[in-house]
Design a protein that fits this description.
It contains eight helices and 32 strands. By secondary structure, the protein is an alpha+beta fold. It has three domains: 170 residues, Jelly Rolls; 93 residues, Sandwich (Immunoglobulin-like), CATH 2.60.40.10; 301 residues, TIM Barrel, CATH 3.20.20. The strands form eight sheets. The protein has an eight-stranded parallel barrel with strand order 23-24-25-28-29-30-31-32, surrounded by five helices. A six-stranded antiparallel beta sheet has the order 3-2-4-9-6-7, with no helix packed on it. A four-stranded antiparallel beta sheet has the order 1-12-5-8, with no helix packed on it. The chain is globular, with a radius of gyration of 24 Å.
């Protein structure tokens, strides 16, 4: 599913803006009441999560369906085209209605879906577009959760294991776009390097079998055509290719055209392509056959008012802050980010660990807190075969969407699952096989959490890179830097001794209140955050297999309401409105001199 693109043969109409908005009930209701015009005076912006937009606790806490509605017009010039409605994300279950018709349904809150409406609305005519979104999570969804009913009031609440607020709605763009009736459906590019020659293996899928020619042009950043090829499958070679490097992005445009029998162009599509290689060799992570050391963050799509709504201003500012600090990478914790973010990373040479929404696959963690009395995770009544099918679909959709991004160097298929519990291997083995089957060119990882030590973990041998989330000095050895340092080094040396694999510390840090200071360096103070990070870095520098450090988190973010989190998770190096804490200078001094 290619992202809509404006070309001489394709058009896009943005449907972003204010939509009518209404709450549904909490059940899995039918569409019948919602195909008619919504009787509401509420308007909600798209893209944005709806939860923090309104000054209404009922909307903020709503569990179940909500409805967005607006009128749209198919341009009259599209009469000979095929046209579709595309939703970039509906968290977590979306339905598209055209007038009275349900035309598409999708489960999964962070990847796009669309509906072909060519046969329902004639070019030049208007139509009523309704998008229904449900935020309900169960033990068979990715991410998982459960519904509870309050004892005295009967209020329905959503319980989930992940430690970030369950923002919902249309957090990314909605568009109406056209393609020629005979068009390019998909393009896959895989790059390699042979000496100074760049190789682009490609596979093109068209909408129907055709006798027309497929023409390939590779164009450099100066607009020069450096290679021509043809056919739906092949290899394009670039002599003296300029490679895509971290911090030094270079992108070729891989242009595909359908050419008619009269040599006229029927359709064209261009994929920005960075020529680079990614490999794991022993305990090294190699980009273009050179050892690469990850510096950066786990992040969140999270900001005031918008929630998880895509915001280009925040995106550009966040990348500016990462550049200021010398960060070269981030992980899309804990879900695929907006594709505009991936495009931006491609253009600016930022390396990405791309993660599925599979967070919360451990009943021993509840919203970031460990529990010793929890039930087993992998059971027929818990995380089961149906959950794994949803997980497989999340892997398929992530790789299908992001496979051509040069910035993406590794797939993370889960965050902090119960990898030490019985059933973990049986659950994950098919997922690892699927990821490698879909993309044999990138390493596959998952992020391991503290209870699943190198002695207890059951699945890490199946993965290419060890990604560890550890909170020595915070959740354990709290405030005791010397004890935490010894425990951390023992743990890392244990992993190094057991596996000859690269280790990336994908989470480490401490909750820190901006402006809270302590001459004793006590927990929650800015001084403690600095001391803790310095300790981790000393240990990293002593362990040869450590090839990366990604601090948790880039910025403070909203979490589930509860007594363990006061207005969110405060582990950010920046506040939620992107003001630096003292640790920002500490990291900047380290990373800009690494």
């Amino acid at each position: 599913m290619l992202k809509p693109q404006q070309t001489p043969f394709r058009d896009i109409v943005s449907l972003d803006g204010l939509w009518k908005f209404a709450l549904g009930s909490s059940g899995n209701e039918t569409a019948a009441p919602w195909t008619a015009p919504l009787a509401t005076n509420l308007e909600c912006p798209v893209p944005a999560s709806y939860n923090d937009i309104f000054v209404d606790r009922q909307i903020h806490d709503h569990v179940g369906w909500v409805y967005y509605q607006r009128e749209a017009i198919v341009p009259s010039g599209w009469s000979h085209q095929q046209y579709l409605v595309r939703v970039e994300a509906a968290t977590h279950h979306g339905r598209i209605y055209i007038n009275d018709h349900l035309v598409a349904e999708h489960v999964g809150g962070y990847t796009p879906f669309e509906a072909d409406i060519t046969g329902l609305v004639s070019a030049g005519n208007s139509f009523r577009l309704t998008i229904a979104v449900s935020n309900v999570l169960t033990h068979e969804t990715i991410p998982p959760g459960r519904i509870e009913v309050e004892e005295f009031t009967g209020k329905i609440t959503q319980v989930y294991q992940h430690d970030f607020f369950n923002y919902a709605g249309l957090a990314r763009s909605v568009s109406l776009y056209s393609v020629p009736k005979q068009h390019i459906q998909d393009i896959r590019v895989v790059t390699n390097v042979d000496g100074t020659t760049g190789l682009i293996d490609y596979l093109v899928t068209v909408s129907n079998s055709t006798t027309e020619r497929i023409k390939i042009n590779v164009v450099d950043e100066d607009g020069r055509n450096v290679i021509e090829a043809s056919g739906t499958r092949g290899t394009a070679t670039i002599d003296s290719a300029r490679l895509w490097h971290p911090g030094d992005a270079y992108l070729y445009q891989f242009q595909v055209s359908i050419v008619g029998s009269d040599d006229s162009i029927i359709d064209t599509y261009s994929v920005a392509t960075g020529v680079r290689t990614v490999k794991v060799s022993g305990n090294q992570f190699l980009i273009n056959d050179k050892p690469f050391y990850f510096t950066g963050f786990g992040k969140h799509e999270d900001s005031n008012v918008r929630g998880k709504g895509y915001d280009p201003a925040y995106m550009v500012h966040d990348f500016q802050l990462m550049n200021w600090m010398g960060a070269n990478s981030f992980r899309t914790s804990h879900y695929p980010y907006a594709e505009e973010v991936m495009d931006f990373a491609d253009r600016h040479g930022i390396v990405v660990i791309d993660e599925t929404p599979a967070v919360g696959l451990s009943y021993s963690i509840g919203a970031g807190q460990s529990s010793e009395d929890s039930q087993q995770t992998f059971t027929p009544e818990g995380i089961n075969n149906k959950t794994r099918e949803a997980h497989k679909q999340a892997v398929r959709e992530l790789i299908a969407r992001d496979k051509n991004h040069a910035s993406v160097v590794m797939w993370s298929i889960a965050n902090e699952p119960a990898s030490h519990e019985a059933g973990a291997r049986e659950y994950f083995a098919p997922l690892v096989d699927l990821a490698h089957e879909l993309d044999s060119t990138r390493p596959v990882c998952f992020t391991n959490y503290g209870d699943a030590t190198y002695e207890l973990d059951r699945i890490s041998d199946m993965f290419n890179v060890l990604c560890l989330n550890r909170y020595f000095g915070w959740y354990t050895q709290t405030g005791e830097i010397e004890e935490a340092e010894a425990a951390l080094e023992k743990e890392l040396l244990g992993w190094e001794g057991k596996y000859d694999k690269p280790i990336v510390m994908t989470e480490y840090g401490a909750d820190t209140i901006a402006g809270l200071h302590s001459v004793l360096g006590l927990p929650w103070s800015e001084e403690f955050q600095v001391e803790l990070l310095d300790m981790y870095h000393r240990v990293f520098d002593r362990v040869e297999s450590v090839v990366g450090e990604q601090v948790w988190n880039f910025a403070d973010f909203q979490a589930a309401v509860g007594v363990s989190r006061v207005d969110g998770n405060k582990k950010g190096i920046f506040t939620r409105d992107r003001k630096p804490k003292a640790a920002a200078q500490t990291l900047r001094n380290r990373w800009r001199h690494t």
